[in-house]
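Sample intake — S-adenosyl-L-methionine-dependent methyltransferase
Collected from: Tothia fuscella
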Amino acid sequence: MAEASGHEVKIIGLNLEVDDQAKWHSTHAETDLTAPNAEKSETLTLVPKNAKHVLDVGTGTGQWAIDYAKAHPNAQVLDTDLSAIQPKENVPPNCNFKVHNTETEWEFEHKFDSILGRMLLMGIHDWPAFFVKPWDNLKPGGWLEVVNPEFPVGCDNESAGPDTPIMRWSRGIREATSIDGIDTLIVRKMRSTIEEQGFLNIREERFKWATGPWPKGEKEKEIGHWMLPNLTVFMAPSAMGLITKKLNWPKEDVKDLVKEALDDLEDTNRHY
Ligand SMILES: C[S@@+](CC[C@H](N)C(=O)[O-])C[C@H]1O[C@@H](n2cnc3c(N)ncnc32)[C@H](O)[C@@H]1O
């Protein structure tokens, strides 16, 4: 799987981002968005079997890290995040959390067999600079895995034109975050960015991540089922926090947009 000459990497693209810290985490803690679509288990298979050192960047609730550490008592799992929101109890001794901004210097005690960065879209301003860090901090042949959505959201059928409330809201989020240098479509350039850093054996997987119960496939339906409450919770704070503040849209207009967008989400004919 891994070669001494370089690092391997897996990129997974999703079509939706949900990231409003407090709100998102509160929902995420209950549902673990990635579990239903098997990302969790896929991730586990990517970590080399005998990995001694694993790093989970932007760990969030730390759930992946806790599960992984429990399943692999011989591995040391370090989990970083801007916020110390991870649990203090029932954490296995081989799982350690550290407050760290991943965009600053990485000064860890050792190199890693595997580094994971899931759903960091809204937290990374300079992806080429970010990829230097895992490159320098992976053991030869180590694995990097990044999972990112893209934003604005898409529509799987032709039921939603560019001016539906959801489309307007999600375009607003893209525009607002771009003011701070976030590229919410970066996933489209992720592969070449990673290649330029020198990583080898890059695998890219793209898949749709539904919101709502419309998909036919069992797995996709389950994702849609979990995504609906997540996006519902994310809608108002993201709009008020980003669209009003960064784009200076009047608050009342944004409130109306949120209301319309929430109704729009309930419309099962629209395949967001
Ligand atoms: C959407 S959550 C994803 C959490 C987790 N990786 C998962 O997939 O469940 C994004 C997390 O990345 C963290 N984050 C964002 N930017 C970061 C940065 N520059 N350094 C460290 N953590 C960051 C946030 O605090 C948040 O907990």
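Post-analysis note: The helical segments are 21-31, 39-46, 63-71, 127-137, 165-179, 187-197, 218-247, 251-266.
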